[in-house]
Amino acid sequence: MKNSATPDTPDTPDTAARLRRAITRLNRRLRHSSLGGISPAQASMLAVVNKLGSPSLGDLAVAEQIQPPSVTRMVRTLADAGWVLTSEDEHDRRCTRVSLTPAGRREVREIRERKNEFLAQKLRALAPADQERVEELVALLEQLLGDQ
Predict the structure, then answer these.
(1) Domain contains 16
(2) pTM, to two decimals
(3) Which domain holds residue 93?
(4) Gap between the Cα atoms of 85 and 88, Å rounded
(5) pLDDT at 9
């Protein structure tokens, strides 16, 4: 099927593919630059616990799309590192809840700060006109995602 894009308009499927690749590469670089001694899976789990507040192990399995035994092992590792605490659900003793410790909240904050600093450093290296274009791109991405 022939693409209906004209010479003056972008090729939408090509642009979508380029955008996906760029976002994937950027995400990979952000992860690599921000994690320090923590694995991507551990960082993700900490971020989910931070977002959900006090999720159950089952909530974490669903959110992370992993099997419950894997969640149990990872939560144990995070607890051993001092980043999370586990507790019995007050209404259902069969349910274990997970919450961040102050050290866990600090780790989540530091990961975000390292990601922000990585991007800020890249942005500072751009010419002022390109920095303005990035501002416009961010607004477009937020619009695309419905974040406004």
Answers:
(1) no
(2) 0.77
(3) 37-145
(4) 10
(5) 64
Q: Is residue 5 part of a domain?
A: no
pLDDT of residue 35: 81
Domain count for the chain, please give it: 1
Q: Say how far apart CA 40 and CA 148 lie, in whole Å.
A: 28
Residue at 44 is within a domain: yes
DSSP states along the chain: ------TTS--HHHHHHHHHHHHHHHHHHHHHHH-TTS-HHHHHHHHHHHHHSS-BHHHHHHHHT--HHHHHHHHHHHHHTTSEEEEE-SS-TT-EEEEE-HHHHHHHHHHHHHHHHHHHHHHHTS-HHHHHHHHHHHHHHHHHHT--
All residue ranges of the chain with pLDDT < 70 are 1-10, 147-148
Position 1 scores a pLDDT of 44
CATH number of the domain at 91, please: 1.10.10.10
In terms of C-beta distances under 8 Å and separation of at least 24 residues, what long-range contacts does 80-88 make, across chains too?
Answer: 83/46, 83/107, 84/46, 84/49, 87/54
Q: Is the dihedral of CA 17, 125, 40, 87 positive or negative?
A: negative
